[in-house]
Design a protein that fits this description.
By secondary structure, the chain is an alpha/beta fold. The protein is built from ten helices and twelve strands. A four-stranded mixed beta sheet has the order 1-5-7-8, with helices on both faces. The chain is globular and about 60 Å long. The two termini are about 25 Å apart.
Length: about 350
Amino acid sequence: MKQILNTLYVQTQGTYLHLDHDTLKLEVERQTKFQVPLHHLGGIVAFGNILVSPFLIHRCAADGRNLVWLSQYGRFKARLAGSTTGNVLLRRAQHAALDNPEMTLNIGRYIIASKLQNARNVLMRAAREAKDENDQRVTKAAAQVYVESIHNAEKAIDLDKLRGIEGFAAKTYFSAFTAMIRTNRMVFEFKERSRRPPRDPINALLSFVYTLLVNECVAACEGVGLDPQLGFLHALRPGRPALALDLMEELRSLLADRLVLTLVNRAQLKPDDFVERPGGAIYLTEDGRKTLLTAYQKRKQKEVQHPITGSKVPYGLVPHIQARLLARYLRGDIPTYQPFILR
């Protein structure tokens, strides 16, 4: 089983990262501010103007360590790719499955079923916690609509219909998102999903956490030997990690959305943790990102009961388990892909 290791998030502009033997050192204005044994890190995420020494890049590539570059405000820019590893027979099976409409549809159905069930759990939890009767009604109604979507997804005859059902369910889910917000609702009101750039604080938070989560799923795919760009539910596009996006759907509401709601409802993130950039884009401040990244690391360590393994595992390991289960299905070791559904 893959050990869950810390991810180092570096966002102080002008920081220099380099290796001193097997120790990673972080320097700001030529002064060492932080150091850690490299083997303690599972990945490094650099925000904006962060300098990384060539030797550190080479070492990360050789070790298969995840090294990701984001813009200062969290938009994905690049990811380090080392030499191709893994089982070539597994990747051939992955390609063959994509050419098999029945297998592709089955994988898509299970992923969507998991996404809808987990999102319904989030809605029902919010309904139980709601103090206002109207909010309770909204979230319960949305959860009931989700039940219909789950049944429809089981009957979908092709991927296009499945994607349409998922799109309708997502619209229903986000229509109840504001009802799940209990603190500073006027500021964090959800009106519509906006990306590239986000146009309000709640979209800024969601986009930021989704970026972190998809990087975890890319690492999970690569760790098993799957091609992260060769997905089944998301359409294939150059440079798009379609398979990682597929796996992320199962955890989107549980790991990302619940984290955002918790930070907002507990007032750990406030209106002054956001800044508006030219053109109307809204981004987290440096302090806001620190708060979110700390909470995200803690969330990854939280243990949940995995329905397939029957044991408690940290959230951070769930993408790796799901990637392994998918690999077993593609190889023909198990009859169906078994998604992650939190009971």
